[in-house]
Amino acid sequence: MGTNPTLNVCLGGFLLAKIEEKIETLLSDVITNLGYELYDVEYAKEGKDYFLRIYIDNENGISLEDCEKVNNAIDGILDKADFIKERYFLEVSSTGVEKTLRKDKHLEKNLGEKVEVKLFKQMNGKKQIIGILESFDANNVYVKEDIEQEIERKNIALIKTVYDW
Question: What is the pTM of this model?
Answer without folding.
Answer: 0.81
